Amino acid sequence: MTKRNPDYDFKWCPGCGDFGVMRALEKALEERCKTANELIENTVVVAGIGCSGNIVHLQDGPQPYGIHGIHGRTLPIAYGIKAGNPKLNVIITAGDGDFLSIGGEHIGPAARRNLDVVCIIMDNGIYGLTKGQASPTTQLNVITATTPLGKLDEAENPLELYLTNGVGFIASLISTKPKDITKAILDGINYPGLAIIHIQSPCTTYNDTYALLKGDVKNDIEPLAIDLPESHDPTNYSSALEIARRNKIPVGILYNKEGSISMNQKIDRQKQSSNAQQRSVDELLSTLRLK
Ligand SMILES: Cc1ncc(C[n+]2csc(CCOP(=O)(O)OP(=O)(O)O)c2C)c(N)n1
Ligand code: SF4
Ligand SMILES: [Mg+2]
């Protein structure tokens, strides 16, 4: 996709948090092209299925390549792209349902491989596109299309899940702060390994959490989203885990593991240290041809 498709007429609802994320992504890609002197065509956006995944069709400005694949499989698709062409800058955009529910089992393997991609997760605590079913991050007791008397199971804690699965770079942000998101995306691109930018991106139609996140000081309602303390050292895993386990949404760079080596760096090192001769794709295929 190097041209925006004029026939794709999907629209986000007014006030949808995904607008802020899109602005941040557009800005990050613009900056990336400038600073790395890289063509926009060097970036591939792998989108999940959901309102959030539609970002790949709605982006303004220079268009990266885009794949709107299948629900829950952004990480395997990104793995294939990165294995085929390590030089590409691969960015995943997906929702909480896509990434944490149907796609949840891919996070552990991607973290262990240390796949060098940035995942931008738009968490609205609901399945927006399919009209409001509960997702893993829907809070306890919340009434949705699939939980008419209130959700029975506890909400998943995605930050704790990422940390305990070994993800090396984790930012936790909100869609009302696009500048912070832009910076985190750029940091994620420069991080050698799996980077997740997890964004609270409220769904104004099915699960409007803006007020909860912001709080209401006048009425003694504490905000759910709280800036990370300045004293927090993002290279400290125990501190990141302790903060992730608090009943709040931390805002900032939660974890940035030092000494990370990406999947492709590991492959390159192995190739250099072994005597195995590298064969071209044609040579490999010729060994499979029937005589
Ligand atoms: C295999 C498969 N199962 C289910 C669906 C239906 N479906 C489409 S989007 C979606 C959930 C979307 O929720 P989320 O990923 O949170 O994105 P949002 O719309 O909230 O941004 C579901 C269940 C599908 N398209 N494919
Ligand atoms: S349904 Fe929710 S997530 Fe989907 S576009 Fe509307 S506000 Fe955004
Ligand atoms: Mg969602």
Structure report:
Strand 1, helix 2 and strand 2 (65-68) form a beta-alpha-beta unit. This protein is an alpha/beta fold and 291 residues long. The chain contains 11 helices and 8 strands. 41% of the residues are buried. The model has no long low-confidence stretch (mean pLDDT 94). The chain has an 8-stranded mixed β-sheet with strand order 2-1-3-4-6-5-8-7, sandwiched between helices. The chain has helices at residues 18-35, 55-58, 74-84, 96-102, 107-113, 158-165, 178-190, 210-214, 237-244, 263-273, 281-288; strands at 43-47, 65-68, 89-95, 118-123, 169-174, 195-200, 225-227, 249-256. It has one domain: Thiamin diphosphate (ThDP)-binding fold, Pyr/PP domains (Rossmann fold, 3-Layer(aba) Sandwich), CATH 3.40.50. Iron/sulfur cluster is lined by residues 12-13, 16, 18, 51, 124, 128, 203-206. Thiamine diphosphate binds next to helix 4.
